[in-house]
Each structure stands twice: as structure tokens, then as C-alpha cells.
Amino acid sequence: MEFPEELLYTEEHEWVLVEDDIVTIGITDFAQDSLGDVVFVELPEVGAEVVAGKAFGVVESVKAVSDVYAPVSGEVVETNEELPDTPEVLNTSPYEDGWMIKVRINDRSELDDLMDSEAYQAFVEDQE
Amino acid sequence: MLKTTPLNAAHKRLGARMVEFGGWDMPVQYKGVIEEHLAVRNAAGLFDVSHMGEIEVKGAGALAYIQELTVNDASRLVDGQVQYSAFCYPHGGVVDDVTLYRFSAEHYLFCVNAANTDKDFTWMEEVLEEGDFPNVSLQNVSHTYAQLALQGPAAESILARLTRVDLKAIAYYHFQQGVVVDIPTLISRTGYTGEDGFELYCPPEQAERLWDALLDAGAADGLQPVGLGARDTLRLEKKYALYGHELSAEISPLEAGLGWIVKLDKSPAFIGAEALRRQKADGIPRRLVALTMTEAGVPRADYPLYVGERKVGIVTSGTMSPSLRVGIALALVETDYAAVGTELTVGIRQRRVAARIVKPPFV
User: Which residue in A64, A76, B248, B341 has the most C-beta neighbors within 10 A?
Assistant: First the structure.
């Protein structure tokens, strides 16, 4: 199971890559493993507002529908347009090709609520 | 406390993700639902279905009792034959769908759904007590059987390596008792995947040996253990009903498209015949259809269906088809809107997503 060091993480198993005021968001290796084969992804439109703690999209496995929650608030500036056509990329490359959306954040203090790699790894180990 | 099959430890050793099903601790997947599904379609898969129930009916009066209990005509069975059937309530709803095995004129076995075993046995006892059926004995023998299903185009050649029984001589929906490895096994050419294959009934204490022997014998052909996740996608692609979804106390076999197993002319009439005759005469109000998404989306059980603004039905089972890579579903739709080719929309969260009724099976 992978927990890249440069990322921040949420308890709902999303990851965040911070680059100035643009963050990239996806789901973690633990999330894709728990979901099983991903068959469908629903992403918001560019320009949509996301709110920390609220669902911004949906990931569907063969058997179930799962909400994906925004770790931070802001405006969606880009979405991964390849993802809806190849949802299985979330399983094979959750941290790279499986990135979901990029958001321009409006409140940097929200990043303080996120876990670093070590804390997230401990959190996941507690779950199991 | 969840019930476990004799293969519980074997599943965990194989890395299965376990899930609760009908009160049992069962494997939902090993390597992944899609990979397991495709293995069954292209090579072979091995399922633990030991959670299913088995109920024995014996005695000189067995056939007469079974004829009242079930919708299909059991008098057509010969020794060694299997029949798909159902028990109905007097109002025409379904108690369970079942397979019926005839060993001899005075010895039958029902295989019933895992979640319904106790309910079915209680129902059978009530029917026996309330009717006039001398010389019938019932026994719930579920604990004396483990069951494995070996399914896929390579199933026969894999099983042939482990038995001297002439498998080619066992026709579809027939069975033989024989020896596999050194294990007494009921070999039934039946299944829930739509592929050629066998359901193998054996003593529970031998199940793990049979499981290991089959996986070993089939390794070179690509035989994989397959969980309940793929069991569901496989049956759905073939439009096989699942009790609790396409069949229930509120859904009649006529609505579910199972008219072909309902012998309304059976005399004396079976339990539910009068209600079903009435339903047929009045016009069946809704029908089970197969539908395919024509826009991206995954239909799921309980999603509503619309033609224009009118709600016309509800999804009973849905998934992303691993074979077709498109969303597919079974749904109960008002008869006026149930024709093949009908364009409708599925309510998926806030959107209406386009779909079309197609001629089944999907695959």
C-alpha cells in the first residue's frame, strides 16, 4: 500500500497535492483497494464550487456507489478529462494518472486540518 | 454470529474479501470482480455455493405433494433430471425459486436460496400439515451438503481429469452420482452463469479437498476462484432472476417472465394457481425487462425509470457489465412501456440518463 510523502490526506481517503494556491485531488491507494474495480466516475464541471467536507463527485465500483469528498473549498479549475473514459486508472494509478480535479483554494488554513503521510498511514492501520 | 462454509479458511488463504450474505460469511471477490467474471466467460471459475439450502422429500406421496407445492410440472421428471421451479403463496407472490432433483419416484431433493432456507422449510412443513399428503417425509439436509460450482467453457475438461464419470453423457439439467478424486459427489450439469458447467454436491468434510483438487487440475486452463460479486454480474448478463430483486412475495412469476415454468393447467392446481390465472386473464400489469444504458451511467436496484415525465418502472438489479462495458439492468416496467426498443431514462442521483429496452440475454 502506498502513501506518497509529498501529499496530504483526509479521513475519507482522498489525497491532496499542494502547488501554491492550486491543489490536485484524488483518492488514495487504500480507497481504490477497498472499492475494487472502478467502473464509473462522475466529476464536477470546471467552474463549479467545492466545499470542504461536502461530496464533489462519485466513484462507482461494480457493486457500489461511493461519494468523494472535497478536502478543501474553492473553485474547480481543471478536471481529468481522460478519467470518465478510463475509470480503471483509479485502480492502477491512483496518485498520478488517476488525479480527479484541480481546485483554486480560497482558505489555506483548511490545509491544516489534513493529515501528512505518516499520520494517514497510522490512521489506515487503525482501521484494519 | 455469521455462518461459515467448510471453505472459509481456504477463502481467507486465497486473499478473499469476505462479506455477509444471507447470514453467511462469504467471499465477494479474490483478484477482482471483473477479472473473475471474464475468467468464467473465457476459461473457468470455481465458486463456493455451500451456503445454499438442500431439502429432501421422500415417500410414496412425494410427487403429489411436490405438485401442489411447486408451479412447474414435476411429473415430467425422470430419474437423474433437474427442473427449475418455484413455490408460490396463495396470492401468487413467490416464496422462493428452486431447483428440483429427482433421484427416484419416491426420492426428491430441492436446492433453495441460502437466505430463504429456513423460511422455505417452514413453508414446506405448513403445506404438508395443512394438506392431505400421506406418505411424505421432509428433511432439511443442508448441513450434510457442501456445494461447489465449476463454470466456464473449460469446466468439463477440467472435471474430466478428476473423475471416471462420463461427463459428456450428463445432459444439461441432468445429474449423476459418482466419485470425483475419491469423494462421493452429485454431479449436476446446472449453473447460474449461463456457461457450461457443473454444480457439485459433496460431504462438507471433503469440500476443501475437492476445492483444492479442482483448482489444481484447472490451473493450466486459467481456472480461478470466483466470489459472489462476479456471481451476480454473470447471472445478470444472462437475465437470471435473483430472489429479493426480480422475485419476491410481491412479484409474481408471471411478472418476472417465468411463465415458462408456470403450468397453470396442472391438476390438482398448485398453491397460487388461481391467483396467477386471474392475473393472466386480467392482463399482467408489469413485466421484467432487460435494459442497456445508451448514455454513460450505472443503473442500480431501486433507481426509477421514466418515459418522458411519467414514472413507468423501477430497476430490480443493475451493474456495469464486465463483458459489454456498458451499464445493464433488469427492471419491472408497466406493461404498456415494456416493449423491446422502448427508449426511457433512469433516475441516477439528480440526472435522467438515457437507456433502451433490449431483447435478453445481454450476452
Answer: A76
Whether residue B202 contacts residue B184, with contact meaning beta carbons closer than 8 Å, is answered with: yes
Q: For chain A, say whether B319 makes contact (Cβ under 8 Å).
A: yes
> What's chain B's length in residues?
363
Is residue B218 helix, strand or coil?
Answer: helix
- ipTM for the predicted complex comes to 0.91
Q: Delimit the CATH 3.30.70.1400 region(s) of chain B.
A: 53-143
Q: Between the CA of residue B59 and those of A73, B105, B107, B245, what are the distances in Å?
A: 72, 8, 7, 34
Which residues of B fall within a CB distance of 8 Å from A37? 32-35
Residues B330-357: pLDDT tens digits? 999 999 999 999 999 999 999 999 999 9
Q: How many CB atoms neighbour CB B325 within 10 A?
A: 9
CB B275 within 8 A of CB B92: yes
DSSP B270: P
Q: Give kind and range of the element (H or E) at residue B110.
A: strand B107-112
Nearest-by-Cβ selection for B320 from A58, A62, A84: A62
B322 and chain A: CB distance < 8 Å anywhere?
Answer: yes
> Residue B117: enclosing H or E segment and its boundaries?
helix B117-130
| 8 Å CB contact of A58 and B349 | yes
Distance from CA of A9 to the nearest CA of B (A): 25
Residue B94 has φ and ψ, to the nearest 5°, of -100, 135
DSSP state of B70: B
Domains of chain A plus CATH, in order, are 8-107 (2.40.50.100)
* Tens-digit pLDDT profile for residues A86-122: 999 999 999 999 999 999 999 999 999 999 999 999 9
> Where does chain B hold its CATH 2.40.30.110 domain(s)?
285-358
Contacts of B232 in chain A (CB under 8 A): 63
- Return the amino acid letter for B245: H
* Distance between A107 CA and the closest CA of chain B, angstroms: 29
Distances (CA, A) of B97 to A32, B116, B175: 36, 10, 19
Q: Do A37 and B33 touch (CB under 8 A)?
A: yes
Question: What's domain B8-50+145-237's superfamily in CATH?
Answer: Probable tRNA modification gtpase trme; domain 1 (3.30.1360.120)
